[in-house]
Amino acid sequence: MSWVRRMLARQRLALWSALILVLTLVMIGALLMAAMEANLRRKVDEALLLRAQHVGHGITVDQDGTLSPAGVASGLADLAPLDEITAPGIYVQVLDHAGAVLLSSANLPGGGLPLPADLVQQTLAGRQTTTTIPIGRERVRLLGRPVLGEARVLGAVIVGESLHFLDVTLRDLRRLLGLATLLAVLLSLAGGWWLRRQAMRPVADVTRVARDIAATGRFERRIAIPQTQDEIRDLAATFNEMLARLERTFRRQRDFLADASHELRGPLTVIRGNLDLLQMDLPEAERREGAAEATEEVKRMSRLVSDLLFLAAEDAEERLEHQPVPLHELVSAAAERARSLDAGQHAVTIICNDPTLVQGDRDRLGQMLWNLVENALRYTEPGGTVTLGLHNHGPVAELTVADTGVGIPAEHLPHIFERFYRVDRARSHGHGSTGLGLAIVKQVAEAHGGQVRVRSEPGAGATFTVALPITSD
Ligand code: ADP
Question: Does residue 438 have its Cβ closer than 6 Å to ligand 1?
């Protein structure tokens, strides 16, 4: 029975609209029937009154003012035209003042109309009265009209008409309305079902694609965008956008994970090899060399891991601090640190250091700047120069780190901000590089609403510029 319940739930809208339609049609039908019945009955009553008047006019009154059978009989001649109105289904009866039947129309069965006492009483009391009585399987409408003499009621004319025609008309109308209601309901149910199917098709598509993706993990699937201009189209388009985004994110994560594992495998292999060597009987000098190499690789690994953690935290959109950061202080600190670590191998200078406040995260901005300075020192031969600068241009601060080092060939420039990208793997390895430094620079700059660019020529050094929005606080 659960499929019945499911189907009822699905066709809920169609069922509701069908129900509303039924109620509306039933109400309209009932009103129509009531109006029709009242109208037809009024028509019957009007015809009865005319007939009663007609009969009334045909009656002669005796000189003594009573309606005697003889008087009636003599009047019967004048009643001759009555024959034409005593057609089948139309009855006439004349009563005297005491209620005795003086005359019955020819079509009445013996004994005349079964008149209700109430009608006779009311009419003989001088009031025109109508009522409906059953005769056999028919209903008959009766109208009693008093025959008035001078100040008293002389008798009564009762005319009746079978309501057969009215009842049949109303019954046929009722059947017709019932049939029309049934048809309308069926049509509305079918229409509702069809409309729902049309409207829900894209939603069903979304569901199918979502299920498919859940089962297979294939994020490249897309749903067909319907040609209509409605919410369903928006839903389909939004769903596809979301899928594209998810696909990009998953691909990036997968690539990143593969690259990260690959990068970690290198130092691990070196460390393992060296540890194996250290377990052997080796001259002291070689042992020391092996241990030093392993230590170097451990350093590289820990740098790699901390870079990875840094990027992962940024990926997870870990909340950035939002503090005013004096950028000029970071520039001075970085230059200071470079001088002390570099032990005078390079000339580290600051050409301009405009006091600048940017809104953001001090630690991350410090890391970004240090990555640039570290690269400049790393890729510049001893004796070269590393120059730091901070210039304010209107609402933008430009932070530059320039060196006189090896530079970067043009074909590598578009890629150096990618994760794990290195211009010269063999050479970079010796420097303990991870290939993540510039990816971090780009990510931090963008997280602060800024951007980074590079200008370089092989052999003529490189200049990295980070543009950041200045805060007015
Ligand atoms: P790495 O850890 O290898 O330095 P980065 O992402 O910081 O990784 O840099 C990517 C590549 O860009 C480096 O391998 C290097 O070849 C090149 N590069 C970065 N900075 C400089 C620079 N100042 N001068 C020359 N080459 C650079």
Answer: yes
pLDDT > 90? residue 76: no
CATH 3.30.450.20, domain 2-170, yes or no: yes
Superfamily for the 319-469 domain: Histidine kinase-like ATPase, C-terminal domain (3.30.565.10)
Q: Is the predicted pLDDT of residue 42 greater than 60, yes or no?
A: yes
Q: Which of 303, 386, 416 to mutate to test the pocket of ligand 1 (most atoms within 8 A of CB)?
A: 416
Selection from 62, 52, 78 nearest residue 146 by Cα: 52
- Which residue out of 301, 311, 379, 400 has the highest number of ligand 1 atoms within 8 Å of its CB and is therefore the one to mutate? 379
The matching CATH number, chosen from 2.40.128.110, 1.20.1050.10, 1.10.287.130, 3.90.550.10, for 208-316 is 1.10.287.130
Indicate if the pLDDT at residue 258 is higher than 60: yes
